[in-house]
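Quick one, probably user error.
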């Protein structure tokens, strides 16, 4: 099976309009809605499972963000969708949770749960000039996704410094506050496939995406910007 055919099937099976109708048919005042990329990843002819899961998740995120503004959604309140990609998935570990998208529906806006700390935010300074340039203006879905990428790359950058000092180990990562002992193996495994040039390229891709979203014309399609970002960061060439 080719990736394009599989993605089309995923998007058809996760049509948000059908979820809205199903929710309105119940007596519930609010519900958490989850869109699964897959319960089991298929073997694709033209793409790795790790890359395909991320790309399909981005496609579903973009579809739900678009569909929640359609006429069919005016009868319910819908929160911005979130794409969930587990660290274990990015590290290509066996039995890692497959990426999925989630949002909340409610009869009225007051019925939606508070956002809390869901929108990703950054400290005023990260200690890295490139990351400091990634300053977000709000909590759009594109900015949330960029924040998630930045958070992960910050972890890898700090871990790389330990590798340069010859101290890359689970104990050193935990002692430096970079990752817990449980998270450390995934960080080390991902860093072994990523070198300094790859991290620099990923930072450059993030900066380009941020500038595209904040361009003077303000007409960049967030979905396309994020898709290009995933293609650049998840591509095998980005890890060399």
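Nope, works fine. Designed sequence:
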């Amino acid at each position: 099976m080719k990736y394009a055919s599989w993605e089309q099937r995923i998007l058809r099976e996760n049509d948000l309009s059908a979820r809205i109708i199903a929710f309105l048919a119940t007596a519930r005042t609010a519900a958490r809605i989850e869109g699964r990329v897959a319960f089991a990843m298929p073997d694709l002819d033209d793409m790795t499972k790790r890359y395909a899961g991320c790309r399909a998740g981005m496609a579903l995120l973009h579809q739900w963000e678009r569909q929640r503004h359609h006429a069919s959604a005016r009868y319910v309140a819908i929160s911005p969708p979130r794409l969930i990609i587990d660290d274990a998935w990015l590290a290509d570990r066996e039995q890692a949770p497959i990426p999925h998208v989630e949002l909340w529906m409610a009869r009225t806006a007051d019925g939606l749960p508070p956002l809390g700390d869901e929108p990703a935010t950054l400290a005023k300074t990260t200690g890295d000039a490139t990351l400091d340039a990634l300053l977000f203006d709000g909590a759009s879905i594109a900015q949330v996704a960029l924040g998630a990428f930045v958070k992960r790359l910050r972890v890898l950058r700090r871990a790389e410094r330990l590798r340069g000092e010859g101290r890359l180990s689970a104990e050193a990562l935990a002692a430096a506050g970079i990752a817990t002992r449980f998270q450390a193996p995934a960080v080390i495994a991902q860093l072994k496939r990523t070198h300094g040039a790859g991290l620099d390229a990923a930072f450059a891709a993030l900066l380009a995406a941020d500038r595209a979203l904040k361009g003077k014309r303000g007409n960049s399609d967030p979905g396309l910007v994020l898709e290009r970002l995933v293609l650049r960061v998840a591509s095998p060439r980005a890890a060399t």
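The longest helix spans residues 141-164.
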